[in-house]
Amino acid sequence: MAGEIRFTRLDDGSSVELTHVPQAVPRHTGLQSLMRDALAPAAEAATREAFAEAWQGWVRTILIDHADDPALIVVVA
Questions:
Q1: pLDDT for residue 62 is more than 90
Q2: Residue partners of 42: CB distance under 8 A and separation at least 6
């Protein structure tokens, strides 16, 4: 399988594969550091909350601002 997910019609067996390209949507510049810090065993609540807000902001951008972005979901031939 070339894509990440395949949709197959039950009536004629034709299918299409899709790939998700999250890099098409810019992330919060410190998201990786925030994730690392939030996942540390001794992370404070404020650190975890900062990560959660940044992550949810990125997800919101994907779902709202890039809902029709052809670079985000790619049909694999």
A1: yes
A2: none
Tally of structural domains, the chain: 1
Is residue 18 within 8 A of residue 4, CB to CB? The reply is yes
CB 66 within 8 A of CB 60: no
Q: Which amino acid is at 4?
A: E
Rounded-to-integer distance, Cα 2 and Cα 74, Å: 11
Range 22-38 burial, b when 16+ CB lie within 10 A, else e: eeebeebeeeeebeebb
Q: Give the global pTM.
A: 0.75
Cα–Cα distance, 77 to 64 (Å, whole number): 27
- Domain housing 65: 5-76
CB 32 within 8 A of CB 8: no
Confidence label for 58 from pLDDT (cuts 50, 70 and 90)? very high
